Amino acid sequence: MKKVLTFTLILIALSTYSQDGNREQISNAINTMVEGWKAGNGELFASPFTDDATFKTWFGLEINGKEAIAEGHNFIFKYFYANTVWNLKVDKIRFLTDDFALAYCSGAIFKMGATEKTEPDCVPLAVFQRIDEQWKIVSFQNTLYAVGEGGKSPGDAGVAKQAIWEKVGSR
Question: Record's SUPFAM superfamilies (predicted)?
Answer without folding.
Answer: NTF2-like (SSF54427)
